[in-house]
């Protein structure tokens, strides 16, 4: 079981422990989650300043990712979750050829760093030891939780990352909500409680969607925006919804973070062929022969697994090196 009733009983204590930043954030996101009422001064600050905390970056790769986010997206990364996206995800159905996380108003559809009262903090660090604590908000159905557990199980069986229920003691953790604001996440560990939204049922229908958002939280971006993607796919700009062209902007070569993994058409981080289409025609098609499906969400590709394990190789190794429990007495 993922969420026991005792975990749900924690909600009020957890809400009190989260501090005003997340309380304000959740009120903006959903209007009411059973959290204490916010006073006007609890409203989030406008996104007017980028703050970077260098000490939170654990390695050079995290620095590269942060610089990429800053240079390529800037202030557009910051915003508030919106119900217009939620409405589109409510209407989404499996089998339509578009993934629910491609329906958002957010950067590239589903990347969002919500502001807090502490201001804008574009951190994007690894999770120490490869351990990601998470708190599941009440309200997910049994079906949602079953698929969530399947996603967690694939992380645990295939990668070195470990998702552990929030104990109330960790300072950095995911708060996984199911507001009507679509599917979205920040990229990497931002510090403090960090919201990730999986609108139910749209974002919980496919295990690959849950894996996708958790991969953003772990520190990954979309596959089709790799710097060298034009060798592998054709972007059909004439079919892209007006104003959504930036979602298809490739990364600069300097900021690449492919971890030596070849371009991966089968990645759960790849857009579907009709993502952000204005006319039902494909916005992105493969150049390689024999590639039939882009943007599958059945589950991790081999490339996804390898990329996660390479990004976290040294981070997870630090966990393995740590003593797990006090040594038992020697005879
Ligand atoms: Zn995404």
TrEMBL record:
Keywords (A to Z) from UniProt: Disulfide bond, Glycoprotein, Hydrolase, Metal-binding, Metalloprotease, Protease, Signal, Zinc, Zymogen
Mind telling me which residue stretches traverse the membrane in this protein? Answer: none
Q: Which domain of life does the UniProt lineage start with? A: Eukaryota
Matching SUPFAM superfamilies: Metalloproteases ('zincins'), catalytic domain (SSF55486)
Q: What residue range is the signal peptide?
A: 1-34
Provide the cofactor list for this protein: Zn(2+)
Enzyme class, UniProt record, top EC level? hydrolase
Can you cite a GO biological process for this protein? proteolysis
Kindly state what the record says about how the cofactor is bound.
Binds 1 zinc ion per subunit.
Q: Which InterPro entries match?
A: Astacin-like_dom, MetalloPept_cat_dom_sf, Peptidase_M12A, Peptidase_Metallo
Domain Peptidase M12A residues, every copy = 118-317
UniProt keyword Hydrolase present = yes
Q: Keyword Disulfide bond on this protein?
A: yes
Question: EC number(s) of the enzyme?
Answer: 3.4.24.-
Task: Write out the catalytic residues in the record.
Answer: 213
Name the record gives this protein = Metalloendopeptidase
